[in-house]
Amino acid sequence: MTLSRRIVSETLGTALLLAVVVGSGIMAERLSGGNVAIALLANTIATGAGLVALILMFGTISGAHFNPAVTLSEAWQGNLPAREALPYIVAQIAGAFAGVVVAHAMFGEPAFFASEHVRSGPAQWWSEFVATFGLLGVIIGCSRSRPSITPFAVAAYITSAYWFTASTSFANPAVTLARAATNTFAGIRPTDAPGFIFAQLLGAAAATLLFTWLYPAPPANATVGGTVAPSAFANQSVPD
Question: May I ask the CATH class of domain 3-220?
């Protein structure tokens, strides 16, 4: 697949992801009558469902990263040429902001307006570390053991992380930057974004180190029917 096709895939996929996250947040807030739990539940369901569809749609083109943390991890593992990481990340950030514009236009909001939603402090940063650590763990573990279920596992994890983390699981630097430009349910105050992004990158790095050790790269002929069989590792020497 050509780089241009993959860049368009990452841009469009990330834009649609943000349209889902921000748009469903606006709709949920307007319909929930002030019940934040109901609004979050609606936002969660829409995001999880949209994520499955988008990964299935774009996965065979670009890998459906939609996330600079995922792209950096893939480059670190050697699954993506290092020279292509920056174009991917630029595409993801551009797509994320485009998705915010799309969502705002659907609901009659200004193209951009800075969020006033405070999300700061050690508990929030730790939540983002945990959320991103888990996300990368799911991606690496599933892609190396049962790749065909990866889209569903990723969406299931993000759906759950909306509720078990104090930050509602951004777990994505591009998403974090773009959500700073929407003063809606999904927003984050711009001054709080750097703390989130730093925690996300730390979580991604820690997960990449641990899960590439837990799941050694399988032999080239180990994939059968879209699944890596456990027996493929039987004769592979793995350092302690």
Answer: mainly alpha
Q: Name the packing angle between helices 150-164 and 36-62 (round to 10°).
A: 150
HSE toward the beta carbon, residue 194, CA cutoff 13 A: 1
Contact 134, 161 (CB under 8 A): yes
Domain residue spans in the chain?
3-220
- pTM beyond 0.70: yes
State the CB neighbour count (10 A cutoff) for residue 214.
13
| Of 117, 88, 126, 114, residue with least CA distance to 178 | 114
Tokens 């573990």 map to which residue? Answer: 141
Q: Confidence band (pLDDT; 50, 70, 90) for 115?
A: very high
> Where is average pLDDT lowest: 68-82, 145-159, 176-190, 217-231?
217-231
Q: What is the DSSP string of 160-200?
A: HHHHHSTT-----HHHHHHHTTB-STT---GGGHHHHHHHH
Beta strands in the chain (DSSP E): 223-224, 227-228
Average pLDDT value for residue range 70-80:
96
CA distance 83 to 101: 29
The two tokens of residue 180 are: 């700073």
d(CA 150, CA 141): 9
